[in-house]
Q: What sequence folds into this?
């Protein structure tokens, strides 16, 4: 199992998170797109900042909300990252529709374009191939990742040989049961027929501390809605064991964790403890 980070928090803490993940031996950081005031709405800009702040950590987007952005803009920004950080950046896109929060906390819905998600993904892939051909494949092979929450979307990802990112934490907030969550990644794996290997990444929420009691307090203080069970909780050793079990159930090679705590320092400490435990587990 590869251990990665998944950042849904304030961009103020992004660079500190990158530094801690790289020091702790994490595989990758996935940046996200949210349109609340205190979170990042630009995963590609966040990815550029994270890649510039680190030297070995892989960076991905999970994902750019494809319906909200022009395809040309997405590809041209991704091209720059592929060129500047060869072998380190991967583009992931999502089909969701985001709420946007104004200064007075009023909620509005961002309206998607008329094209459905699969159509826009097809156009995106076509444009990437055209650009690679005209640039003589300047930045080498690239992998597209799709964020999927339904079996149909996962099957589509396998059909186009994309990587799959499944958000376990988001599924739990929607009260999707364990068997139904597992069925999404299984649909992807069962329908894979392309050359090469399928790639499943699962993003999940939890808390890690020096004791289970400390981890539980961190989770209760850091997660804004206490209605869901964390995917992992406890000491570093216990959390890695829980994540390995979850990875096996999902068929995932990569678990991308977002740690919760009452302060940014608590989050960084969680990442540090998990990274140390993961290294010991591999040894």
A:
């Amino acid at each position: 199992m590869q251990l990665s980070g998944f950042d849904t928090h304030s961009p103020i803490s992004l660079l500190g998170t990158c530094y801690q993940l790289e020091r702790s031996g994490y595989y990758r950081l996935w940046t996200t797109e949210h349109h609340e005031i205190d979170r990042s709405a630009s995963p590609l800009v966040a990815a550029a900042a994270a890649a510039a702040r680190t030297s070995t950590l892989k960076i991905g987007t999970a994902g750019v909300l494809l319906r909200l952005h022009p395809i040309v803009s997405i590809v041209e920004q991704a091209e720059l990252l592929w060129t500047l950080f060869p072998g380190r950046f991967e583009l992931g896109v999502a089909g969701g529709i985001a709420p946007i929060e104004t200064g007075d906390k009023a909620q509005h819905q961002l309206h998607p374009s008329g094209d459905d998600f699969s159509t826009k993904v097809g156009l995106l892939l076509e444009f990437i191939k055209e650009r690679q051909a005209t640039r003589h494949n300047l930045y080498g092979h690239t992998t597209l990742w799709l964020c999927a929450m339904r079996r149909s979307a996962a099957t589509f990802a396998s059909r186009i040989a994309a990587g799959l990112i499944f958000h376990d934490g988001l599924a739990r907030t929607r009260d999707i049961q364990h068997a139904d969550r597992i069925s999404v990644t299984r649909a992807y794996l069962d329908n894979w027929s392309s050359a090469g290997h399928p790639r499943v990444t699962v993003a999940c929420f939890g808390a890690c501390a020096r004791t289970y009691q400390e981890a539980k307090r961190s989770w209760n203080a850091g997660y804004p809605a206490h209605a869901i069970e964390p995917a992992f909780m406890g000491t570093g050793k216990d959390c890695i064991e829980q994540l390995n079990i979850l990875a096996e159930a999902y068929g995932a090679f990569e678990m991308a964790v977002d740690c919760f705590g009452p302060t940014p320092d608590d989050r960084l400490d969680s990442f540090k403890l998990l990274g140390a435990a993961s290294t010991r587990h591999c040894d």
In short: The radius of gyration is 18 Å. The domain at 2-282 is CATH 3.20.20.30 (TIM Barrel). The chain has a mean pLDDT of 89.
